[in-house]
Design brief:
The chain is mainly α and 180 residues long. The chain contains 5 helices and no strands. The chain is flat and about 75 Å long.
């Protein structure tokens, strides 16, 4: 297998430039970085393809090319196109809303980042009580839960055949042997 060193260097440069461009805050640069990564992946699959041969059809004689890297290249092209279209829609919407395509820090994120470190240690020692009004969820008990589990005793048309964690009791006097 004789792979040109130039192809390998170009692929490595495309990967490096793509990763560097994706780390920027501008969505346009993220799009360019993603396109560079997609092209680098296609070039990698071209390098992996191996020596050229004839098309892999049934009954052909001679050296045949490996069809798997070709299929993966087509898949990579489609994925790159779809994600690029999505990123273009995000860039357009960001430009409509804010006349800029940069991602800015949220005010809460900045406040959290600037919080002193000694508060972090003090917050770790505080235990949360279930009766506390400032709990992290609104659904503490079964009375306020938004989901109600219906059983066969709630409605006559429900057949409750799901497995349960509690032991199954069989009624000895019952002829059918059904579970309670």
């Amino acid at each position: 297998m004789n792979v040109s060193l130039v192809l390998i260097v170009i692929m490595a440069v495309l990967f490096a430039c793509g990763v560097y461009a994706m780390l920027e805050r501008s969505l346009t640069r993220v799009l360019i970085g993603f396109l560079l990564l997609g092209n680098a992946a296609n070039l990698l699959l071209l390098i992996v393809l191996g020596p050229p041969g004839i098309a892999p059809f049934y009954g052909d004689e001679g050296r045949v090319s490996d069809p798997l890297p070709m299929a993966l290249t087509l898949t990579a092209i489609v994925i790159t196109f779809a994600v690029s279209a999505f990123l273009l829609a995000l860039i357009y919407r960001s430009w409509q809303l804010g006349q800029a395509d940069t991602v800015v820090d949220d005010a809460e994120d900045v406040a959290l980042r600037e919080r002193p470190s000694d508060e972090d240690e003090m917050d770790m020692d505080v235990e949360v009580d279930d009766t506390d009004d400032d709990a992290t969820t609104d659904f503490l008990g079964t009375d306020t839960s938004p989901i109600r589990i219906l059983r066969s005793t709630d409605l006559a048309g429900i057949r409750d055949e799901a497995p349960v964690d509690r032991p199954v009791w069989r009624d000895v006097a019952d002829d059918g042997g059904e579970d309670r």
